[in-house]
Amino acid sequence: MPQLPTVPNTDPSKCVLDSFRIAIAKRLSEALPLTVEQAFSGVDYGKKGEDFTVAIPRFRLPASPSEIAAKVAEKFQPDEWIESIVHDNAFLHFRVNTTNMIREVLHQVHHLSHETKSGEPEYGTNTSGAGQKVIIEYSSPNIAKAFHVGHLRSTIIGAFLANLYKACGWEVISMNYLGDWGSQIGKIAYGFEKYGSQEELEKDTIKHLFDIYVQAHKDTQSDPEIKAEAARWFKRLEDGDEEILSKWKEWREKSVKTYESEYERLNVKFDVYTGESAVSQEGMENVLEKLESMGLLVESKGATLVDLEKWKLAKAIARKQDGTSIYLIRDIAAAIERYEKYKFDKMIYVVASQQDHHLAQCFKVLELMGLPWAKSLVHVNYGLVLGMSTRKGTVVFLDQIIREAGNVMHEQMQKNEEKYQNVEDPETTSLEIGITGVKIQDMAAKRINNYTFNWDRMLSFEGDTGPYLQYAHVRLASIGRKNPHLLPLPAPSEIDTSHLAQWEAARNIAFLLGTYPDVVKTALKTHEPSGVVTYAFRLAHAISSAWEVVIVKGEEDVEKARAKMFLYECAREVLAAAMKLLSIRPLERM
């Protein structure tokens, strides 16, 4: 292909469509008083079947945009990069050279999926975050309290962000900040003494601690003396009493172990399990002293408040009447201790939108304390899940959600007896499809939206659902099994991809594959998994439209059959990459 100028922040070796955009920008810069770089900023993906569209008004050139566009269109000659141009009022639509685009995209997908130095598939990744470190805090359930659906959303979105930042070259620390301290621990200590059973604890830690907590909470509500006793238990823990400390450590360790196996089923992994207990008393005292010296603290009814009225963030409680610190101070101290330990370049909190105000206060106080890194704190928020319950009633534990998803899917699969017989491990497969259903329903819309969870929708193989996405991948994986005579495919340089240019459906797939690296970059800017979900569905639909026209089985011309097979193999690589980015394990059979 002919040489092209280089443009900053592009990398044709990772995203070959950058080359085609640069070729368009070069055309514009030759016809108009623009540099290649200025022109490149105006080359956008087109809508409704156009490859790339340029809106002339954005360049603010003297003369009517329509006349300028006409001038560019008149001079147009097709070349190896661009096939045609359409003048549409103030817009220019460019169609790239089909044969060359298909070849270049498929070669790049293959090369970056199978021939990388790391030995890992790298198509869609970039190095924009190289040398930078990000902490992502997500999931963060409370020990002995219900793992509610809000925690599930945080887990799903956080796992996506961890994968996304890794794909963009960042060093990622996935952190789980457990609610493992505070008055609830006093209640559990009191409750365990009264209702606890070591045997039950071993059998199902999280459920047993939860049951104890519920019972103890009831007791404290009805009897002030028991409430005081629970508070005394917690005081003993704070004072480092060995007896209660060793019990607390055991509860915490067993809880973490249980969570780890549940996270494993969800394909989620944490680098660090920390918690409220890890924040030092000294750290919190230092924060209070600093705020006092800055004149930010005010007394009110025996409590100490941080006055943030000036920044329209109201007053926040720093210390209660009984002298105990409140969440705000603990979270501020935790952030400071994390920075001292990890020297991060960015820290992201994946926390529900109900905490918008709390985190805004937290970030503002850190900024007022003169900490330059406070500007690199980010709150990625999300809306509520409504109506999540199992068929037996309300959801309390994470494993109930996971089990229900698997069971419901398993029943669905058994309805097709013939296919069911061919599945190697129906239990595991139904669990994976079920989890995919839960995740896709969660990530399909913008995260700030509340959504109503619907088991029926999750089970559907029609429409934009998790099972449909797995089905699309499985179908791609089956082409090789159904056409073993074509495998292994020869090297890409020996496959004549020009045969594919005759099918618009093949062209659509190839172009979509070429856009994937940009989908990843956009997701990094917006922190929205929905863009990747939408992309995965667009790709699955494009593949589905091609089945009836770009047919491998029965194609007698072996050259053509190989080219089609190569297209579908590349599509499978990219669909799998998008699914893995969303923390979904792509299935080979179902």
TrEMBL record:
According to the UniProt record, one GO cellular component term is: mitochondrion
Q: Which reaction does it catalyse?
A: tRNA(Arg) + L-arginine + ATP = L-arginyl-tRNA(Arg) + AMP + diphosphate
Name the source's superkingdom. Eukaryota
Which EC number(s) does UniProt give? 6.1.1.19
Family annotation (CDD domains): Anticodon_Ia_Arg, ArgRS_core
Query: Which keywords does this chain's UniProt record carry?
Result: Aminoacyl-tRNA synthetase, ATP-binding, Ligase, Nucleotide-binding, Protein biosynthesis
Cross-referenced Pfam families: DALR_1, tRNA-synt_1d
Keyword Nucleotide-binding annotated: yes
Q: Name one GO molecular function term.
A: arginine-tRNA ligase activity
Top EC class, one word = ligase
Question: Residues in domain DALR anticodon binding?
Answer: 469-590
Which GO BP terms, alphabetically? arginyl-tRNA aminoacylation; mitochondrial translation
Q: Which family does it belong to?
A: Belongs to the class-I aminoacyl-tRNA synthetase family.
| Stored NCBIfam families | argS (TIGR00456)
Q: What is this protein called?
A: arginine--tRNA ligase
Q: Which organism is it from?
A: Panaeolus cyanescens
Q: What is the lineage of its organism?
A: Eukaryota, Fungi, Dikarya, Basidiomycota, Agaricomycotina
